[in-house]
Amino acid sequence: MADALVELENGTEIDGWIVHKLLGKGGFGAVYTVQKGDQVHAMKTEVKSDSTKLLKMEVYVMRQLNQAGARHFVTCIDSGIYKDQFSYVVMTMIGVSLQDVRKMCVGQKFSLGTAIYVGIQSLEAIEEMHNVGYLHRDIKPSNYALGKDDLNKIYLLDFGMCRKDIKPSNYALGKDDLNKIYLLDFGMCRKYLDEQAQPRLPRVSVGFRGTVRYAPLSCHIRRETCRKDDMESWLYQQIEITRGALPWRSIDDRNEVAMYKERCRYGINLQEMMGGCPREYIEILRYIDSIRYYDIPNYKKIYKLLEQAIKNLKLKLHPLDWFHFPALQPNKKP
Predict the structure, then answer these.
(1) Superkingdom of the source (predicted)?
(2) Looking at the structure, do residues 79 and 143 belong to the same domain, yes or no?
(3) 207: pLDDT confidence band, cut at 50, 70 and 90?
């Protein structure tokens, strides 16, 4: 929607923040590098409209995660409404998305050691979000990010579809910790707990949310999503970053993708989907499929299976794959 874009020129001042550079833009807004004094951060903007209130959800969820001490999320620095024209949030900078890093690798896949490292960190981010009462609902690689200066950390992004959407593009490398992974983008989040901290009663029918490639089966059949569904999307992401592609990657029709996902639970189709993956992934799939709407997932069970794969295959986690790409290395000051 072109009328929903917020376009700011370099040097524009927004409540004390000076705009320096456009980092990217999408259907409902844009992200800029901004500075106030010696602070340099990212500003995400969204036109003020009754129909677009994703940023309000992102700010709310981000603050709750920050208050809970969650490790795989950016910090909310500032937020507000500028001259009744657009909303904005200022947050700490992160690096390149997990999706972009994956595409740099041979075969568009990580080594097994790095893939499992990513799996553990990205699931930790989902668990942290669930612990504060939200579903992400759009888990994917482009909503995860790596740290900018310490590539060992991975962040989860994009909270706009949260329910209090999981795929590689929702993850990115952090700015100050390249070993850490961050989860981003909360625009699709939804609170799943009621005032008594119990799961809300499921709605009879719901609209499709998320990204078709990584969407759980519940989304395809318009069933209310729960914690297990974020984990199912996480597993599709995990398979993709391990073997390079999902079997239904070239299918556009949503119903055909759903049928393919159903078939991949059994027999030769299961073998096709899991080709090149540790056998523990099949156990993880079976466990996730067994979780029911009101169940509290046993995250530790999945971590143990991933650690078991590391041991059985005698894998080395470090150095992580992205440390081999000079363009991603931090510029260290002398």
Answers:
(1) Eukaryota
(2) no
(3) confident
CB 116, CB 310: distance < 8 Å = yes
Q: Say what the pTM is.
A: 0.90
**Is residue 181 assigned to a domain?**
yes
**How does pLDDT run across 154-182, given as a tens digit for each residue?**
777 765 544 544 445 555 555 446 688 99
Please indicate, yes or no, if residue 78 is contained in any of the structural domains. Answer: yes
DSSP 8-state symbol, 296: P
Contact 328, 96 (CB under 8 A): yes
Instruction: Tell me the β-bridge partners of 159.
Output: 186
Q: How far is CA 57 from CA 73, 146, 226, 304, in A?
A: 15, 23, 18, 33
Query: CA torsion, points 286, 290, 295, 296, in degrees to nearest 10?
Result: -10
Positive or negative, the CA dihedral 299, 300, 304, 310 is positive
Q: Within this chain, do residues 267 and 219 fall inside the same structural domain, yes or no?
A: yes
Domain boundary among 56, 76, 94: 94
21 plus 144 within the same structural domain: no
pLDDT in tens, 222-268: 999 999 999 999 999 999 999 999 999 999 999 999 999 999 999 99
- Domain end point (choices 43, 71, 94): 94
> 55: domain range?
13-94
For 181-202, write each residue's pLDDT tens digit. Answer: 999 888 788 899 888 888 899 9
Tokens of 277: 């993956």
How far is Cα 65 from Cα 185, in angstroms, rounded to an integer?
A: 13
Residue partners of 268: CB distance under 8 A and separation at least 6 = none
CB distance 122 to 156 below 8 Å? yes
In a domain, 332, yes or no: no
- Catalytic sites, residue numbers: 138
